[in-house]
Each structure stands twice: as structure tokens, then as C-alpha cells.
Design goal:
The chain is of the alpha/beta class. About 35% of the residues lie in helices and about 15% in strands.
Length: about 300
């Protein structure tokens, strides 16, 4: 996909035109900044950087089926999309609620919960004002064991559930786009390619990448199913690649204020056809390595490197 401008054009032609608004070799600036009911923090980040954030990553609740069907932040989503015609929202949608039993994915695949996903599609299409700029990151990080929709024990059940949900939501709105996402570091020994739902139900493939649980950059790049493998996978399936979450890490397995990591990630993004790359700019969720705002201050040197590189 990346080999030429023509290759990028071919992929873009298969998606909504608005998804391909950045130049070849330039990933659109994305961000997750917590507080999904607000957008002010995204404007503050844009002002700090001197460059506009175009992709906002949000998280639908997994508390219940009703919570999944009715995201609590859609008024902010509408405000976000109305603020700039180039802006998109990546809505992370659970495949099942937390605490679900082992048979729930199979029940999703059988259509038991279709009504909730139809309602979700109706809400995303009707309450946001721009469903063609909504990307549904469905059942994210299935190669881990930390979510109820994990594919590790039964990839087939995950695939069938994913496919059913996409088909159900597309029956309501054909404008919505669907993103399949994996974590760079998942369950040991699990081959995440075995959980790929299929080209017909995936518009974008993405990977979450943090500077943790790795030895060094070469490990991240060339280790088992690392960045290089992921890019090859995206090209093989003729899908745009994205990075819905990426960031430094102050966690116990992270490398802290690692300026080289930021430099390497920037080089990686510009070397390929990356749709968007969203930095994890909040203290919640583990990495605790915000680079701007009230949670910032633990990675000051890397923050300055980020500002220098990503403001261009």
C-alpha cells in the first residue's frame, strides 16, 4: 500500500474521501485526552502544539448493553465534528459488557444482541451530525486478556461476533467506518492474525503502541509481530494503518522520559501511509505519561521533542 502515491490513492478510493485528507507520509494528529464529554482539552493541546488535532479517540462504556448502545458523550462528539470539517472521532466500542460469560461472544454472533448495536448505529448516525466521520474501533485489543471480548481463547467466536456487529450496524448506516485494532503487546504466544475478521468488515487496521514491555526500539520494530510485521499486514490486506493509542510510559515496565522513542515513532509514522496517530495524553489507563495539560510533567524532555517534531 505504501509503495507509491498510486497505492495510497487506491486505498483512499475504497474509503470515504474525508478519511484521506492528509498528505502522503503525514499522519493526521490524533489524541486521547480523557473526559470524553468535553473537547476543550483537545483545543488546548492544539494550541500548545501549534497544530490542530483532527482525530479524537473516545471510549464507549462497557457497563451494560444499554450503555454500549447509547454512548454518554455524543453531544461532545457532535460539537467536535462541527468544529472542523476535517475532524473525525474514533469511538472505541465494546463487543460485550464487562463481566460477560464465555458464551456471550457466540450469542452476539447469533444475533441475540442485534437490537443494541442497531440502536448504537442509530445514535452514531443521528446524534453526531456527521456519521461519515465516525470510525468505530470495535472490540479493540482482542489479543489481550484484559477485556471480556478477548479472542485469545476463541478467535473464531470473536471473528463471528465482530462480523455480525459490523453487518448489523451497516444495515442502519453505511456511512460508518470500522477499525480493527490490536495491542503491540498482548497475550504471550497468541497470533493476532488468527483473530482478523476479514477484509469485507474492516476499513482500517490499527495498533496500540506504548514504550513498555519491550527491550528497545529494535524489539518494538522487529520483534514478534512488531511494527514492521503490522505494516506488512496492513499492506497485504490493502488497508490504511493507524495508531489509535501510542505513548511513553512511566509504568513499572516502561522506559519513562525516553526521547528516542518519540523520535523513532515520528520517523515510523512519516515513513508509511498512516491515517492517524493518537497520543495517550492522560494519566488514566496506566502509562501516566501526558505531555501537555494538568497531568503533564513526568516526561518533560520527551514532551519538548514531541512538540518540535509533531508541530511541523
Amino acid at each position: 500500500m505504501k509503495a507509491s502515491t498510486l497505492g495510497r490513492f487506491t486505498v483512499c478510493a475504497a474509503l470515504a474521501a474525508s478519511l484521506c485528507s492528509t498528505a502522503h507520509g503525514e499522519a493526521a494528529l490524533g489524541l486521547h485526552a480523557g473526559k470524553d464529554t468535553q473537547i476543550a482539552q483537545y483545543e488546548e493541546f492544539s494550541n500548545w502544539l501549534g497544530k490542530t488535532v483532527l482525530y479524537r479517540v473516545t471510549f464507549d462504556s462497557d457497563d451494560s448493553w444499554n450503555a454500549i448502545a447509547s454512548p454518554y458523550f455524543l453531544s461532545a462528539t457532535r460539537q467536535w465534528l462541527a468544529s472542523n470539517p476535517q475532524r473525525h472521532e474514533v469511538v472505541s466500542v465494546p463487543l460485550v459488557p464487562k463481566g460477560s460469560g464465555s458464551d456471550t461472544l457466540s450469542e452476539v454472533a447469533a444475533g441475540k444482541y442485534d437490537s443494541y448495536f442497531r440502536q448504537l448505529a442509530q445514535n452514531l448516525a443521528g446524534k453526531t451530525g456527521a456519521p461519515d466521520r465516525i470510525i468505530v474501533r470495535l472490540g479493540w485489543e482482542p489479543n489481550g486478556t484484559w477485556y471480556a471480548w478477548s479472542a485469545v481463547k476463541s478467535p473464531d467466536a470473536y471473528i463471528k461476533a465482530f462480523r455480525r456487529v459490523v453487518q448489523t450496524m451497516r444495515s442502519v448506516s453505511k456511512d460508518l467506518r470500522f477499525e480493527w485494532n490490536v495491542a503491540r503487546t498482548g497475550a504471550k504466544g497468541f497470533d493476532w492474525t488468527n483473530a482478523y475478521p476479514g477484509d469485507d468488515v474492516v476499513d482500517i487496521v490499527s495498533m496500540d503502541v506504548y514504550d513498555q514491555y519491550i527491550h528497545d526500539w529494535d524489539d518494538l520494530l522487529n520483534g514478534h509481530q512488531g511494527l514492521a510485521f503490522f505494516r506488512s499486514f496492513a499492506r497485504q490486506h490493502h488497508k490504511p494503518e493507524a495508531y489509535a493509542e501510542w505513548g511513553l510510559s512511566n509504568g513499572s515496565h516502561g522506559h519513562g522520559d525516553n526521547q528516542a522513542f518519540v523520535q523513532h515513532m515520528h520517523e515510523w509514522f512519516v515513513s508509511g501511509d498512516v491515517l492517524y496517530a493518537a497520543y495517550w495524553n492522560t494519566s488514566s489507563g496506566g502509562p501516566d505519561a501526558a505531555i501537555e495539560g494538568r497531568d503533564a510533567g513526568k516526561v518533560p524532555n520527551s514532551a519538548q521533542v514531541f512538540k518540535s517534531l509533531f508541530s511541523r
